[in-house]
Specification:
The chain is of the alpha+beta class. The protein has 12 helices and 15 strands. An 8-stranded mixed sheet has the order 1-2-3-4-5-6-15-7, sandwiched between helices. Strands 9-10-11-12-13-8-14 form a 7-stranded mixed sheet, with helices on both faces.
Length: 359
């Protein structure tokens, strides 16, 4: 599907597949100063293999104004219910007025053409001031703040110094752990074969359980493997093995690059006694730093941070991250808009009834 329409003196292209024209539009938009995070890019949409609609807006002056990707989801047992997600929306427009118009237009078009009942929006901005402006904009067009599914605060690690300077700025213990002689006992290699997905899920399940979680949901690793295979400068999946045990994946880390920013997406490790004696997390983090610098990144989002204190089950992870940086930033907010209240209410009511009957 490729629909072109003229609305209020603007041109809008709506696509459900990526072609050369879509890529050319994106390139022109980026050349004008827009910034697209990976889930909003043509590369990602083609790699993920999911149902989506890509909205590409041309302004009244005939120049690319912005781009928004929406993922569409239809539950297997309730195909009549459609909900959408706008993931990782950053500075995807070159003009605030055009962005406001786009966020008013997208829900209406999806409601009319796809029967959309609910739309979730995830904002991500590297700077607080940009997030505040975006928050005001999306609330102004009808989105409501909701409980987040991902982190809102994170730690930023400045990668602009040289690797020698980064090492020199660390405290003595952290530097010693990165350089520890036991690094020779492990193999850390980039993974591009999806056959490792079950092992990675086991690592994630183990980490989730170790920090007080239960029933870790399955992580969608497949799009990242597709990106790591076709665009290794945009996605990095590191697997850690003990030497002599090359078929036992014991830890992994997964990172993506958004231009000059690398974001830590997922990681996990097994409760292997031999592994737990090693500073493996330091080894993995340093390898991702080297990869990030190799591809021109100057910042690393360490994937969220907690405040610590009593009852914070993630405090040990946050403490580990704070060995590298103290730069805490608010980068994310999540919102929802209900476009068909009756249908949405019916779907949620049926889900609640199902939970009651199964309890």
């Amino acid at each position: 599907m490729n629909i072109s329409m003229e609305l209020n003196g603007r041109n809008l292209q709506v696509r459900d597949a990526i072609d050369d024209e879509a890529r050319a539009f994106e390139a022109d938009l980026l050349a004008q100063g827009a910034e697209l995070l990976l889930p909003q890019s043509c590369e990602w949409l083609q790699a993920c293999g999911r149902d989506f609609r890509l909205f590409q807006f041309t302004g009244r002056r005939g120049q690319p104004a912005g781009q928004v990707a929406v993922q569409l989801h239809r539950p297997r047992r309730a195909s009549w219910y459609v909900h959408g997600v706008i993931p990782s929306l950053g500075r995807a427009f070159v003009d605030v007025a055009e962005e406001r118009w786009a966020l008013l237009t997208i829900p209406r078009i999806l409601r009319e053409t796809q029967g959309l009942s609910r739309l979730r929006l995830h904002l991500y901005h590297q700077h607080d001031s940009h997030l505040v402006r975006a928050d005001e904009l999306v609330r102004g067009v009808g989105f409501s703040l909701c409980a987040p599914l991902s982190y809102e605060k994170t730690l930023y690690y400045d990668l602009s110094p040289s690797t020698d300077e980064l090492l020199a700025r660390m405290d003595k213990k952290t530097r010693a752990k990165i350089r520890h002689r036991t690094r020779e006992e492990v193999e850390i290699v980039p993974l591009s074969d999806p056959r490792w997905i079950p092992s990675m899920q086991s690592c994630l399940d183990a980490a989730f359980s170790r920090h007080g979680g239960s029933g870790c949901p399955a992580f969608d690793f497949e799009p990242y493997f597709s990106m790591a295979g076709s665009q290794p400068h945009r996605a990095l999946i590191l697997g850690l093995f003990l030497k002599g045990r090359p078929e036992e994946l014991l830890a992994y880390s997964l990172d993506v690059r958004h231009g000059n920013l690398v974001e830590a997406v997922s990681s996990g490790s097994m409760p292997d006694p031999q592994l737990r004696k090693l500073h493996f997390n330091y080894f993995l983090l340093w390898d991702k730093v080297l990869w990030a610098k190799q591809h021109g990144a100057n910042s690393l989002d360490l994937g969220g941070v907690t405040e610590g204190g009593d009852g914070d089950l993630l405090a040990p992870i946050s403490a580990f991250k704070r060995h590298f940086t103290q730069d805490v930033r608010l980068v994310s907010r999540e919102y929802v808009m209900t476009t068909r209240p009756g249908v949405d209410g019916l779907f949620r009511g049926l889900n609640l009834l199902k939970e009651v009957l199964s309890s």
